[in-house]
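Inputs:
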Amino acid sequence: MKRALLRLLAVIPVLLALSTIVFLAMRWIPGSPATSLAAGGNMNATAEEFTQSEERIRVALGLDQPLWKQYLTFLGDLVTLDFGTSFYGSNSVLKLVGEALPATIELTVAAMLIAILIGVVTGVIAAWKKDTVVDGAIRVGATVSFSLPWFALGILGVVVFGVVLGWLPIIGRLPNSLGYHPTTGFVLLDAILQNRPELVWPWVKHLILPATTLALSMAGFITRIVRTAVLEVLGDDFVRTARMKGLSESAVLRHHVLRNAALPIVTVLGLQFGALLGGSLITEMVFAYPGVGNLLVSAVHQRDYPIVQGAALAVAFLFVMVNVVVDLLYLVLDPRLRKVTA
Amino acid sequence: MTAVSDVSKTGEPAANGRVAGDEVLRVRDLHVTFDVRAGRLPAVAGVDLTLRRGEVLALVGESGSGKSALSMALVGLNRGPRTTITGSVEFNGMDLVRASDRELRKVRGNGIAVVFQDALAALNPLHRAGAQVAEMITTHRAVGKDAAWNRAIELFTDVGMADPHRAVRAYPHELSGGMRQRVMIALGLANNPDVLIADEPTTALDVTIQAQVLEVLKELQREHHTSIILITHDLGVVAEVADRIAVMYAGRIVEYGTRDQVLFDPQHPYTRGLLDVVPSLTGPVTGRLSAIPGSAVTGVERPPGCAFAPRCRLAGPECEQPVELRQRGGEQGHLDACTKEDHR
Ligand SMILES: Nc1ncnc2c1ncn2[C@@H]1O[C@H](COP(=O)(O)OP(=O)(O)OP(=O)(O)O)[C@@H](O)[C@H]1O
Ligand SMILES: [Mg+2]
């Protein structure tokens, strides 16, 4: 527990550095939110009116201040957990990011689960059937999965299953017609809380294409990790002890090999989660999925600084939380890491 | 335990009558070869061995002489795609070499159990000590989890655990080296096996703990009439607990006899080298086996005759002829595999 807390604390400087980089990067790239806001206001304005309007907006948003002053204000807000409001409209950053984040988490977790399912099953079989045709086939498959352009194939999936066959929806998260009003933002949870089981199937159908695309990009890697980890454990002495007991091979695998192999696998999965999170931000764009990735991209286009900063922080925070979860999972899996009690 | 299983454990002649009354295990012409890059490695190259009820047979020999390969092959623990095991191992009217994996699993941990050397590595780090013993019991006995757990506590008491109730709940890393080895022994004895194979059970322990663990082993062996195959490098251990000694070299047994025969009247030059005995020695033998000049034969190529000849001071042309283990210069029952008559 203490370890996890320490880790959480250690993350604060990282988040701070990230916010600073995002802060500077947004102000460094050309184009100002004041320009796009002024341009959006009145199409028939004269050049002079436009410049005046732009200047008013600059002052109103505080963008006329020197950079260091803006930065101090930004830091002050951050420390008091005031993430600000969007430059466009009155929505708070917390609300917009808070709505998008569950969608991203759902996509990432769904993809992770599919990738783990495929990766663990194939990896264990490959290790179990080491140096056989089955092992060879799985290893080739894993290598291929590694090198395929999955996002291109994702688009192929959209065309085949979405457009030609019409089996699966290709964009969005839930049809508007369902009238989903988030409580927690997590559809499955809300379906239970609001007693609306009719939400579940459309939600699953929307997840299948993006989550599978994302999962397949990672499954081959997990296969390899699992195969290596299982092979390593199979060579351990306690596996021989398990066989000495007269256990069946499947009991040896289930009771002795898998849980020990889980330790290195969990480490790698924790690290891979970052890549998967990055992948899901891109996948969101391919499938017009209303998560943090889409929020972030449109905010960058509009130079909506507070949203960009908030969304980036949210993604970083998610990443950190996963690491904490991995740490806790370790404690559950490995008694050697727990405090010595006996 | 039921009466039925008791009968099967008395070693009465089995239906086919192959194993005589007090013989528990009979090994005939056992070969174990491993396919390695260089070719086929004959780790065990024709071993005949008989284990009697309640006896402690010490298996000694240099590193790589095939002691582990032999003992693991008895219960097929080194079976695999790269291993070939031939010959026969008769146990309870069954040939364990020809037995299916399924049949063998019924013997493993039940009729024949193994105590491994490095208990820290040989125990599953993620399971409680008691659970590992209980698992062995429930695998072979139709008893509930609680009964198996209680039996584990009983066994932990038997092997001299300081605090059995706490020890069953401990994870291996929470126990000391000596305590872990006791867990290993408790595991070996969990189902009252006929044969216990102990592969260097005390090597990883310091001397005092070693003595305690050996004491436990000896006591339990006397009590349950378990036959033990004890693999060790430690002559002190051999002198203390062995009834018979088999000396292995390059996958073969080169000398076999009672403890006193082999320790006090070694026949084979290899055994003499190992013991490094001087003729006047009459006191108790102690210490590790001696190092013999030259290195052990471990390659895939083996000479047709005596494998020890290249390192033997006494070697002559006759040593190139195949040689078998039989009664030669020693007392009745003291066998060796050296054709030289003049060295004794
Ligand atoms: N699974 C295996 N695959 C290939 N070679 C093996 C295998 N197991 C043992 N060997 C080889 O067989 C020979 C005998 O090994 P074994 O482990 O039986 O020796 P040992 O007498 O037990 O030695 P030690 O005293 O060091 O334990 C060695 O040359 C070893 O390298
Ligand atoms: Mg060995």
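Chain A has two domains: 2-79, 98-341. Flag for discussion at group meeting.
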